[in-house]
Amino acid sequence: MTRITLVPVFWTACALLALAGFAKLHAPDSARASLALIGIHVRSVAIRVIGAAELALGAFAAIRPSPLTAGLVTGAYGAFMLTTLRLLAVDGSADCGCFGAASSTASRSHVILNAVACAAGIVAVVFPPPGVEWIVTRAPLIAAVLALGTAAATFAAYAAFTLFAPAWRAYGSRSA
Questions:
Q1: Above 60 in pLDDT, residue 19?
Q2: All structural domains of the chain with their residue ranges
Q3: Strands (E), 39-121
């Protein structure tokens, strides 16, 4: 039962990883600048390679989940979490670099979201969920709800990464 319960959470983490990779392929500058802030100086081509790896890993882990792919997803989100913590320590208003041009300020919410995705990956190492082909074996209504729900959760997580921190800061800076 844990394997099935994990499906939308793990697929969302994989989709978000692939989306972040795709964004870095097209707009590597914010990730490059974020890494430079914490002392890691790389060329844009390196960010594009990382983006391609994120895209490939997110897609492959969703299609063929295994302890290995789940472990790699866990490692990616663990690295994101540690990078975000370092960014917050260096400059509390730094761009996270997560989603290319759509990135926003690194925040504690980023750390929490990365920790949740990391935890989902850890559970998936122990209980690998079925791959996306599993959805075609479900009843059409269940498959549609699962697919739409996962897509909505992915968009919500993307919005939480890119919109939540700036919106919260804007709300908190209002004059009474």
A1: yes
A2: 2-172
A3: none
